[in-house]
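Request:
You are asked to prepare a plain-text protein record giving the amino acid sequence and the backbone structure tokens, at your earliest convenience.
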Amino acid sequence: MNRKRRPGTPKQSLNRESTVDWADDSNSVSKGSPFAASGSGGMTSVVLAAFAALMMWAFYHPSDSTEVEQGGALGWCLSALLIVAAVQCLRVGRSIISGDREHRSHDSVNRKSGLLVDGIVWLLAAWIGCSAILQLYVPSGFGDEAWRIGGDWRSASNEAWVWIVGAVWFVVLRRCLRDRVNQFALLGLMVVGGVLLATHALHQVHVSLPQTLREYNADPERVLAEVGINAPEGSNARMIFENRLRDGGPTATFALANTLAGLLAMALVVVIAVLLRVFGKAFPGAVAKLRFWQSAVGRESPAGDREDDSSKHERDASSNQHVAVLVGLALAATVLALALKDTQSRAGVLSVLIVGGCVLVDFVWANAFGRRVVTALLLAISAVFAALPLAARGWFGTGWIAALPESVRYRFQYWDATWRLVEYSPWTGSGPGNYQQAYHQFRLPESHEIIADPHHFVAETLGAGGLPAGILLVALLVVGGWMIWRVECPPDASPLGESSEKAAAPRPQLGVAGWCVPMGAFLGWLAVWGVGIRNQQLPDFDAHLIAIPLACAVGWLWWFKMFNASLTVEAESDVAYGETTRASRWDVRRIAWFALASGLLHLSFSGGWTVSGIAVVLWTLAAIVLSPATTPSHSSAAKVTNVASGKVTETAVIAVVAGVAAVGLWMVSYRPVTESKRWMADADLQIRRGNLVGVERLCERAMLADPYAFDPAMFRLHAMEQDWVQRVVANRSATNMKPRFKDALADAIQRAGNDPSKLQAIGELMLHRYQIGGETEVLAQAGRIYDRCQLLSPRHQGIAAQRAVIAEAEGESAEAVRELAEKAVVLAESGGVVTRKLSLQFVLVVRPIGSSAIRQPVRQSAEEAMDSLRL
């Protein structure tokens, strides 16, 4: 193309159309052949392909809610660590054998900033690991009459590995994203995953959930049994299930609609940002009118800068391609927006509205000053949302909290409880994976539910690792924000664009570098469906008949069509004024920064900070935003240094850390958890066959495989209870508690630790046994268990009501029983929450009933029971 030279434009850039600097000097992917790549570039492609496969796996198996604590993410974490260790070892070996020495221009300030970020990330992961290890030494059981928090090592270790893998993922990926083609490809994978799950969610809304609701209305008990929920008719548990079934929204592959909304919000922001840029190419005249104020400052296009006929013809010819891509992106945005709306996540919608507004202003206000304003505004908004938990302790007054919407007020209750937890245990908090059991002790009386996390990423970090972890996270946010500001608003930035060196960067092509992400995603998809077919646990097949073709279409549009149309490599020019500005160019890092901000805003009101399907997106976006390519040298005195030896050392350290972590994960968590689950799967099969003796043996093997697992101990206790029931049916006098059962009971109590929910399950089993056999020893043991439950969860109305009924059966004074009943009534009325009312609670009848209670425990309304005890 023959374009006349603009005043001040370097001659060497005339035939490049002022392309954006996609590739770092260290990466030679785009030099020469489209498939040419340096050795390091080839290894980078392997890393990116592996990470893309892991991301696709996480989209299908996100380990939402409490699944991380139960070990649902261990296989994914182990795979990530093994891949990183292997690739980093290959990199070290290649560098040593080939003797490669790379010379790069480095700004010492930028390099130190990157190392500082890496150091903070490593320290945060290490501290969370230490907090998990300390759970081994938290007293539990009946030996200590004081209440404690934490102590569940298995849950703590399972969650701690996610933090460690997150550190490894971020540090490795940050170094692999100097090439902006790869950055853009990874953003495409997030969009593809978002569209895949959004289509799945829409299928649930319009097909799956209505069908399930019809089946539930026809046979509620069958549906409840299929999903494994114990919810008697008229109970609050059934009310909660019915409300979520009717109004809870879709979840796709996640467990909670609100968590799914986080991924949809980030993907939608990316699509909006790209959509606006494509719109600018398809309709440059309309964009020029939007940017009306630029004419006011005298930026008229020189007469000699007009496009010639050939250039104009070429631009018109590509306009149709731009419009086609625009339509495709608009369709993807529509699918994401509809699914996000159906999740009914106000946090997700709010994050898109705020960040989407900033994206629009950034697009319209396309100059250096506008860029600075948008960056400052978004950083300020993010800081306010990150600091929201500070208001929970009344440091900014509390009167305004009462005027907030109900769901927001609940969040302040969660954060208030988290601060009181940190005040009690400032160094380690509750430990990772132990927040839910600790929340029982610190929640406000009016809180209506037991949550698994405090619904704020900073508060969740405080709960998992105490003040040190919170301080490290805040330091990471501050340093990251400073790096973003320094890159977005450099002191010597020219309003007319970047240097001639940047303008002369060669146009990259898809090649090996661009293929690695879609190929990795495809391999991950194959693995998901292959393993699903082998284990007979396929994803929703009907939904994916629609979701997969649509996701593939979006992937083709993003990874191939947009590259072929040169939409991502050609710098945008302001047609109206004939200038190529830094603000108007495609900036992949800036798009990633917008998406990351939307994710953090969403996590300021929602959980998901350690959910693999959400966390992996956050880590990747952070790696793009803070990658070395985004921190170019702004100093003219930058030194040219040989950094090869330092880079080899860093690579070797990462390889050692990942390798040691993989070995530790295998030995400490993965092997015991998977072996225990394997034995438990066999035990579940045997109990369906009625082989109770075989169930006991299998549970004992599972307990031996994992000395910290609670489920095998509880399952064995349940099997022994069923065996006892069969003996009682055959011989009514065989009601005594055998030593073997006492040992199993002690094991279950010990493994329940300081978790009142687990202890409550054991207590209900003992009360059921008392209903059948009427043994005073069993009643006394149940009373001790519920005493411990009340100590650990003093504000649970159901536990208080059950303890009052037990106290009457034990023969305590009428005054003491009345006080316990009054306490249950007061707790149930706190906060005015419907699901806490005693009319929706049930307690077990505490009296000998006999054979009529064998099939299932006899329950009564907690309201009726408390009314009778208060007379």
In short: Strands lie at 103-106, 639-642, 842-844, 859-861. The first strand starts at residue 103 and ends at 106. The radius of gyration is 30 Å.
